[in-house]
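#random but structural
TW: two for the price of one
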Amino acid sequence: MLKILYISSLCSENTLQYIYDTSINKPEQAAQKFHRLLAQGLSMHGRKCEVETLSSPPVVPNNHNRKLWRLPNETINTLKYNYVPFINLPFIKNIGVFIYTFFRVLYLTSFFNKGKKTIICDVLNFTVSFSSLLASKITGVTAIAVVTDLPGLMVTEKTNDNSKKSVYTTILTRMIQGFDRYILLTEQMNPIVNPKGKPYIIMEGLVNVEMEKTENKLTHKNRYKTLIYAGGLYAKYGVKSLIEAFMLLDNEEIELHLYGAGELTSEMHTYTNKDHRIIFKGMVPNKIVVQDQLTATLLLNPRPTNEEFTKFSFPSKNMEYMASGTPMITTLLPGMPKEYHPYVYLFETESVIGMKNTLKEVLSKSEDELHRFGQEAKTFVLSNKNNYIQANRIIDFINTNKPL
């Protein structure tokens, strides 16, 4: 039987909630959700493979005061979570995580553990991925890289030192190219991360199969028409233009709710003071965002198509939005396959005036038409892109060693 070791910063929902509640700066949740859905999807195929995780929790010295971390292993349904112990101090943490991960992966993938083994790594978590890759070269197991963003093009990269960023990007890119196979979000990523033409699979995203049980009812919608943006609050993500477009709408019975954090967080009070219809929610647990999406009128993703990084991205929020059953307006991202186009409304023009006109046009549609459109999008992603189906594609990819 195939054995998969999933290496990332993934935590169980309970452990992530503890970290979230006790952190000074709240951890990003999009990556956690992506990797949890994939790991859970793999674990659903119990007849085909066994899955366990090895995780370095999303804790760093400047976001948490706790110094000693040795979290107990957990098993949720059939998925086993294993956590790397560490001392939460600068440099010491990374060194300790590297050494522990290297020897743990070396042991788990060695001849002492029989069966066909594969490791899957979130390569944006450099320390655990690099140490795991080195261990895999010794034991000879297949190492698969999950690439959800390209080094150097991530908006959330915080360093302002271009020389340091360049060195880090070069090291990370070379490390990624050392993997045996790839799971990529867009076809445009492949020539950059995989110049040697190794086997790869495109998986632009996935949704929770359990969303089939969640109802989106017109009778449960908010009193005012509610527009939601949930994600990074960055001008490069089009959020500033979106806010300005919304403020041009002459309608007192609509609201714009903004969830997340980023460089625009400090400007939120200015916008909310100017326009009482703008409501800043900040960082909240993802389960609350998902629940609020069910009662909204429209879900928005204004990510500009002219930015370099958009060619290599398929925002996970698009998948989450569609699975909610509430209709979405997004941009025509280069990395979005055409099969999605019938199920989303588009910002045809990405200027402030263009966005305002699109918002006005879509909001003029009847509640029944909007609801029907959202339900069709939900049916599409749950029928074709749920985490059980996407995980099955990856298992077949591992077993056949061919691009799918």
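TW: number two ↓
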Amino acid sequence: MGASGRDSGELEVAVLGGGYAGLRVAQELVRRSRGRVRPTLIDRHPVHVLRTELYEVGRLALEKDGPSRWLVPLEQALDPDRVDLLEGSVERIDLAGHAVVVDGRSLSYRQLAVCLGSVPAYFGVPGAERAHQVYGYLGALAFARALVARLREAASAGGTGRVRVCVVGGGSTGTELAAEVATVAWRHLAGAAAPTPEVTLVVGALPFLDGFSPGLVRHARRLLARARVSLLEHRNVTRVDVEAGALSLEDGTRHDFDLVVWCAGVQAPSVVRAVVGPRGRGGRIPVDPHLEVPGHPGAFAVGDAADLRLPETGLVVPATAQAALAEAPLAARNLLARAAGQPLTPFRYRERGVVVALGLGQAAGQLRGLTLWGSPAALLKAAVDRGYHFATEHRSLPRGL
């Protein structure tokens, strides 16, 4: 399979996106083929972002570690002798024509893995796109810097000022961010007179931490209350007015803020939403149990870009890093099987557990039916993060293979 595709100007396997799913697909293609398949990974940035850790705005504000804690060069995570890296923006995906357009250039492929992740979903709420967000490194860094600047302004006012931070979205991202903002020792970053931020988590109409176990939710509420995070529940945001510093809620009330962060959910990027064919939740690409796009043999969607329903339950596989890392090896296996004319393997998702960070040294988690909270759950969270770091490392194949 190797050289012929490249010699003909056709990409052997195009992997779109260098996030958790795309990076792992490329690694697994090399490993499972023992270097005989040479994928081309295409991403607009030369780095992999450890997106699950971007809620750590205290560390971001400190800037002691630099970007290396959150950004992993793709050349470091992949063997450049066995994976071609192409930096560019994917502008169009033509499944019928077996081509992708990258920075205005059309590239044909034999096989495809769409792993373009997700972007913030604003649900048509006016002004929401002007709020801060922590779904990308630069956005999270900008919010961290803005918060420190506000706290310094309040400190310069003699400590009598206050900084009201409003986090919109009661899922894991919003919850982790709200707890982090409320518990960081900001005085070490913004001056001894800096006040503790007043944090409000706007949950909206969906239940707080919807989909998580009752035990985890109960302990999360307890730990947020201890951190003095206020929960504003059962009311959706209808407008975000950054200039006025106010949220409008669907019941006609107003909630004032100094800084607002939008964490209300994600959707597929516009290039994925524009792919011709059926659409799943958030514009994602529906796939069959093998992660293949129906009607397009050899084209797979993985991670946040895929809408996958488990045939045994009908439940949608969540758009999480854990799910993406579980899907990626199976996608690589099926890409190789499809090329070899062999049967494909269906995906079986088994959630290993979930954990939500709830401030410094605190978390709540669920592992094999057991609910953990406090410091033990925080240790589990640290182990999960180490696992994500490990997933970015490439294990070199012996030379000569």
